Structures are given as structure tokens and as C-alpha cells.
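Hi everyone,

Forwarding the result from last night's run.
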Amino acid sequence: MPATPPPHATDAAMLNWLAGDVGVTAAANRIWEATGQLTDATAAVRAAQNELEAATDAYSEAIRVCRIPAEHAERLGAALILRIGRSRILAELDGFDGTDGGADGDAAP
């Protein structure tokens, strides 16, 4: 393959020339794959945002039903979330063995 496209080549000829270049097609495939990953990640973020909103609404409704005075609900809710978070962290640490088999130095549960 020549190092440059033929002089005065049409768009179709230049496209065919590019399609025959291994480096160009490999890079174009990487762009395609990365775009797909970004699309998947964007959908996952949207789903997580929707779930967080629904969970927050359900939590607010549950607090309202429990008839906790509004002036205490935020403080007590924060404490409850911290308590739940602590319990989850401790449960994860119980299963932690300090090794992940990786070479990056990070240990994962």
C-alpha cells in the first residue's frame, strides 16, 4: 500500500485506501468499542440515578409514615445511613483475606 492516498482520489477511493490500512482500522475499531462502553456506562449511570431517586422517595415516605418529627428526621436519617454503612463495611472486612492475586498492590475482598 502506498504511504499516501493516490493524488486527486475520490472520497470512495480514499475510504478504500484507509480501510486497507491495519493501523487505521485497528484504531477505528478501538473507537467503536470505547463508544459502546461509554454508551453502556451512561445507561448504567442513568439507571443508578433513577434507582437512587426512587430509593430516596421511598425512604422519605417511610420516614413520613413513621411520624418522626421533621426537625429530627434528617439527623436521625443520617445516623441510620452511617450505621447501615458501618455494618456493610464490617461485613466486607470479615470476608477480606488481604490478597487479590493482582500485581497492582491493591487488595480486594
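The helical segments are 11-19, 22-66, 70-94.

Cheers,
N.
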